[in-house]
Recover the amino acids of this structure.
């Protein structure tokens, strides 16, 4: 076969539209074939991962068009300004940076009961008061003369009216560490305090004293990167052995952990309690027949409230709320930061509700509702009324 003829035959066989091509050999045009292929392509996308993302975004877009009215009066059970002031005064009289013992807790509960308050409300107000005092004390510490020795930490914390662990953290960041490490940064000083808290919890449970070995064996220290870990280890050994051979550093640290709310509970314990509260609320929502997705199932989304409502009985979903987020604490104070988060939730999912497990103040709720009118603020009792049969007709 001549070379030119062979080249022409190869080109015809390789071209997909050629009647002589191997791909089109023996094939005929079938009416509607392209429509069927397009339908199959759409089905493959719909049943895959991309389809699930598209479905969730479409559902969110439709949910965002849902209309939710003002929060009904019978679901507004937050503390009034007078009730907040009354309970705050009681909490202030019983306040200390140290955790309450059984007698002090009973006395606080009894006084709160006289004005119709609960111990849970009081503890929530106390935690908020602690945070406020802690923030105020940090500004005072920035210009104050710090104690010259660890043994003076207790009297200095009382004189400066600041949490003991906050003062300890500031003292650690101000103390020099032998070269090449130098002083610890405020961030590493906070990391060292977290190591001390973890070690103190471990040694207290075992009935032993806080030691450098216990601090060096903490999970918090192991989570640090290599260079920061070396710096923190050097600081612990220097404060305990080289700089203060009398062991005053660990004695002061143990006292601070035992007399500060930050030192009585590990962060992971508080996080587990918060997650347990979220699971309890979600379980109650599902018990009412409502189906939806949890935060863990929303990892592909930009915002992830604790629960997104997909469908449910009309009685349970007639409010028009499309998502629920649980806050294990008291809703009080400045709502600006939370309002930004709530606004993004409403943009993505539509109207929703924030549930504060320890209650909230109406002033705080009004600030949230003003920033985002499509959000409701609830406590557990109001949540039960919303899910129960006493929803007004």
């Amino acid at each position: 076969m001549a070379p030119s003829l062979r080249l022409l035959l190869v080109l015809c066989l390789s071209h997909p539209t050629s009647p002589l091509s191997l791909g089109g050999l023996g094939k005929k045009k079938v009416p509607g074939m392209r429509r069927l292929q397009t339908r199959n392509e759409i089905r493959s996308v719909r049943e895959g991962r991309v389809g699930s993302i598209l479905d969730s975004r479409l559902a969110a877009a439709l949910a965002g068009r849902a209309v939710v009215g003002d929060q009904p009066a019978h679901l507004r059970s937050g503390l009034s300004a007078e009730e907040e002031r009354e309970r705050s005064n009681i909490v202030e009289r019983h306040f200390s940076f140290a955790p309450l013992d059984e007698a002090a807790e009973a006395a606080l509960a009894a006084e709160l009961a006289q004005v119709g308050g609960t111990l849970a409300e009081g503890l929530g107000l106390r935690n908020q008061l602690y945070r406020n005092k802690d923030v105020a004390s940090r500004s005072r510490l920035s210009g104050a003369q710090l104690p010259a020795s660890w043994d003076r930490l207790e009297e200095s914390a009382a004189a400066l009216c600041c949490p003991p662990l906050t003062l300890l953290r500031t003292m650690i960041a101000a103390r020099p560490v032998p070269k090449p490490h130098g002083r610890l940064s405020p961030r590493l000083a906070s990391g060292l305090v977290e190591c001390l808290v973890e070690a103190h919890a471990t040694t207290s449970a075992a009935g032993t004293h806080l030691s450098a070995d216990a601090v060096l064996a903490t999970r918090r220290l192991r989570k640090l990167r290599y260079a920061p870990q070396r710096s923190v280890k050097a600081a612990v050994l220097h404060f305990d052995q080289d700089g203060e051979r009398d062991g005053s550093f660990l004695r002061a640290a143990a006292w601070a952990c035992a007399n500060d709310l930050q030192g009585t509970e590990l962060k992971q314990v508080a996080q587990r309690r918060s997650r347990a509260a979220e699971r309890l609320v979600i379980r109650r929502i599902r018990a009412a027949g409502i189906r939806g997705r949890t935060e863990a199932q929303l990892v592909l989304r930009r915002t992830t409230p604790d629960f997104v409502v997909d469908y449910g009985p009309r009685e349970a979903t007639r409010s028009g709320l499309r998502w629920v987020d649980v806050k294990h604490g008291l809703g009080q104070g400045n709502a600006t930061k939370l309002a930004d988060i709530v606004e993004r939730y409403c943009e993505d999912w539509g109207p929703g509700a924030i549930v504060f497990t320890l209650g909230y103040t109406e002033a705080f709720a009004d600030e949230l509702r003003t920033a985002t009118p499509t959000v409701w603020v609830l406590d557990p009792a109001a949540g039960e009324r919303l899910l129960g049969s006493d929803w007004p007709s």
